[in-house]
Amino acid sequence: MTRSDLLSKRSILAVPGSSEKMIQKSRLLNADEIFLDLEDSVLLSEKESARSLVIVELNKGGFNSSSVAVRVNEQNQLIGVQDIEQIVTQAGSKFNSIIIPKVETPEQVKEICKRLTELELSLGLANQTDIQLQIESARGLLNVAEIAGACKRTISLVFGPGDFAASMGMQVLNIGENPVNYPGDDAYHYVLLTILTAARANGLLAIDGPFSDLQNEPGLKLRSQLSASLGYDGKWVIHPSQIEIVNSIFTPTKEVFEKSSKIIAQFESYSSSGQVAGAFLFEGKMIDEATRKMAEMIYAKGIASGLKRPKNGDENGKA
Ligand code: COA
Ligand code: MG
């Protein structure tokens, strides 16, 4: 089991690090994770004051979400390097992870990893800062397999659809939507699967990026369904109104959850009955070891999302 199996991160709320009001509001919300943003939601002229505010607010604590992260600025800029240094130094034990934007090469990740180790050693901390890596450019996508395996602190890969569309030359006006006049169903299918594959090959979470049109609820649902059904663990949200929609779509439905529990139970009872064949029929469908694995994965996601095990079931999904 990898560390990512233990986490449920369906909704991840972006909170501008320059807004005391929104940070205060975020304490009361039900996102699985909130992150205080120092990057694109903060004006250049407010970068330093936002960082100071974020440090104060992290030290105050009191966030409802089980996980709190900080998104720092790009690491090829001094401001981004200072973000990490000051956040870890002044609030090192008050957040769970740092989100690194615009990651493009494994070398960058190794360098950040080394810097964190040196910083933590100097502070008497030990390997406690996890990192999440945003893949949001053509180069980042080409290198994603190596990026995913470059540092043991990495817990997730996060798709950044806005910067990615710009980097590719896609004609997208609303972040997270298909390009204007796109005749197909999903312009991001290849990208989503490539990032997901790199994440899973390295035991990481895979997180989809935001959807910026707050008026378009069907659009948010569709994009959430596209990534959740592929296997993504969660999706960024930009506004409190998006949290419940995303939480619900990234939680297996009751029907699927209960079916997976039944399959596990059938498989166990079939195996323990001393049968010689590995496959059998259940409700007209073939079940084998691969079916059991699929069912266990869905069951684990359901439990992590807070679903109650079916009546008379035990923690292994036995009905
Ligand atoms: N986090 C916490 N609180 C938020 C919030 C967020 N991301 N977005 C809105 N709110 C709060 C507002 O402060 C307001 O609070 P109130 O009821 O106490 O006054 C309430 O939710 C309703 O907000 P609303 O008036 O509908 O929106 P707004 O005009 O205040 O904000 C945005 C709209 C888009 C500017 C805002 O949602 C936002 O900044 N989102 C995050 C942007 C971001 O971080 N982008 C970069 C990463 S993708
Ligand atoms: Mg971005």
- What is the count of β-strands? 10
> How would you describe the shape?
globular
N→C terminal distance: 23 Å
State the name of the first-level CATH class of the largest domain: Alpha Beta
The helicity comes to 40-55%
What integer is the average pLDDT? 94
* CATH topology type of the largest domain: TIM Barrel
Strand-pairing-aware structural class: alpha/beta
Q: Superfamily at the CATH H level of the largest domain? A: Phosphoenolpyruvate-binding domains
In sequence order, what are the helices and strands, one letter per element? EHEHEHEHEHHEHHEHEHHEEH
Tell me about the biggest sheet? 8 strands, parallel, barrel
Oligomer: single chain
Radius of gyration: 21 Å
Q: Helix count, per DSSP?
A: 12
- For the record, the count of structural domains works out to 2
Which molecules are bound in this entry? coenzyme A, magnesium ion
Percentage beta strand = 5-15%
CATH architecture assignment of the largest domain: Alpha-Beta Barrel
Which spans have pLDDT < 50 for at least 5 consecutive residues?
1-5
> Order of strands across the biggest sheet?
1-2-3-4-5-6-7-8
Explain briefly what this protein structure is.
With about 325 residues, the chain is of the alpha/beta class.
Question: How would you portray this structure in words?
Answer:
With about 325 residues, the chain is an alpha/beta fold. The chain folds into two domains: about 10-250, TIM Barrel (Alpha-Beta Barrel), CATH 3.20.20; about 255-305, no CATH class. About 45% of the residues lie in helices and about 15% in strands. It has helices at about 20-25, 45-60, 80-90, 105-125, 140, 145-150, 160-170, 190-200, 215-230, 245-250, 255-270, 290-305; strands at about 10-15, 35, 65-70, 95-100, 130-135, 155-160, 205-210, 235, 280, 285. The strands form two sheets. It has an eight-stranded parallel barrel, surrounded by four helices. The protein has a two-stranded antiparallel ribbon with strand order 9-10. Strand 4 (about 95-100), helix 4 (about 105-125) and strand 5 (about 130-135) form a beta-alpha-beta unit. Helix 2 (about 45-60) runs parallel beside helix 3 (about 80-90), helix 3 (about 80-90) runs parallel beside helix 4 and helix 11 (about 255-270) packs across helix 12. The longest helix is centred in the C-terminal third of the chain and has 19 residues, at about 255-270. The radius of gyration is 21 Å and the shape is globular. Residues about 1-5 have low confidence and may be disordered. The site of coenzyme A has 16 residues, from strand 1 and helix 1.
